[in-house]
Amino acid sequence: MTKVMFVCLGNICRSPMAEFVLKDLVRKRDLESEFYIASSATSFEEIGNGVHYGTVEKLKSLNIPVENRAATKLKSSDYDKYDYIIGMEKSNIINIMRIIGQDPENKVYRLLDFSENPRDIADPWYTGNFDKTYEDILEGCRAFLKRINI
Ligand code: 4NP
CB within 8 A of 44, min separation 6: which ones? Predict the structure, then answer.
């Protein structure tokens, strides 16, 4: 079982999108039972709130299932629970490290560092462009699966 925690600032736009995209990819490969995939925030801003409608609409337009969920915050105990803790951008990594303290088992990554073009995931919060965010997240999730030989 591979346990993956995606992390962004608010856990309403990017990290839930990554959670649902990766769940969809592993489902399509019949590997659902081999993964546990979740997402969380580094801030308290949106805790308890549902998935942003931009993420919901983009994923629904692609027939990618969206679960009804409420934003949660990353906990230091998540470090032991997960194999991979994957942030969307550099500032997420800084905030993840503030929460978990240290990363002795090299579990913390930025999603697009798995790709051949390392960069931050496009942030739709200010642009409203969830198409670009989706393309980046799909590229990152595919690159992640390739990295773990799936
Ligand atoms: P997310 O998007 O981190 O991708 O969920 C944001 C959500 C909330 C805020 C910023 C980005 N905010 O400033 O409250």
Answer: 73
